[in-house]
Amino acid sequence: IAEPSAEERNCYQDLSGLLRHFSQEDLVRHRMALHHLLEAAGSSPRAARALLERFVRPELPAEWHAILERYAGLSSGAKWDALAALLERNPQEKKMVFVRFRETLHMLEDLLARRSIPFACFEGSMSGVEKDAAIERFRREVPVLLSTESGGEGRNLQFCNTLVNFDLPWNPQLIEQRIGRIHRIGQTRE
């Protein structure tokens, strides 16, 4: 578990505080969007910024515009630092990294490329052929697979040794689906 930096923690707390100022009517009307916004903030600064850019409108109070600027100014975050340390400890071991938000996936792609860590990517917008190629590349060539939730079902990846939940969905069934990709007959490790 990675501890957020002071600024990450403050941004999340301030965002949560802003949500408490919505009227009961607005909370009901925008419940799913606000839930999604908090989930994104827990995923990565880039995911939070992307959702805030869609959510913040000119008529919202200045605090909303300020929180958007603060998220835009955050670095990749403490979770990235913890993931980088894990990847460097055992560079050849197969690791599957699950993310919930496409923006977080793209952030990790950028960071891995900058560190010259080979990886494959698996996400919902890919065709079936592209997904198969990504899995095969992961199996034979690269130590890391970055995956959105679309990789959480229907694939047997017991050749993978480590599963990293970069962020956690609020539905525990999705976590079980993620684990199920590598916890299969043929897996030799816990």
Question: What descriptive keywords fit this protein?
Answer:
single chain; 190 residues; alpha/beta; 4-stranded parallel beta sheet; 4 strands; elongated
Please tally the helical runs, counting DSSP H or I stretches of 4 or more residues.
9
Tell me the strand order in the biggest sheet.
2-3-1-4
Oligomer classification: single chain
What would you call the structural class? alpha/beta
Strand content: 5-15%
The total count of strands amounts to 4
Task: Encode the helix/strand succession as letters.
Answer: HHHHHHEHEHEEH
What general outline do the C-alpha atoms trace?
Answer: elongated
Unreliable spans? none
N-C termini distance: 18 Å
What is the typical, i.e. mean, pLDDT?
85
Q: C-alpha Rg, in Å? A: 18 Å
Largest sheet: 4 strands, parallel
Helicity range? 40-55%
Write up what this structure looks like.
This protein has 190 residues and is an alpha/beta fold. Helices cover 55% and strands 8% of the residues. It has 9 helices and 4 strands, in the order ααααααβαβαββα. Strands 2-3-1-4 form a 4-stranded parallel sheet, sandwiched between helices. α3 (31-43) packs antiparallel against α4 and α4 (45-55) crosses α7. The radius of gyration is 18 Å and the shape is elongated. The chain starts with 5 loop residues before the first helix and ends in a 10-residue tail after the last helix.
Question: How are the SSEs ordered, and which strands pair?
Answer:
Blueprint: H1 6-20, H2 24-29, H3 31-43, H4 45-55, H5 62-73, H6 78-89, E1 95-98, H7 102-114, E2 119-122, H8 128-140, E3 144-147, E4 162-165, H9 172-180
Helix pairs in contact: 1-3, 1-5, 3-4, 4-5, 4-7
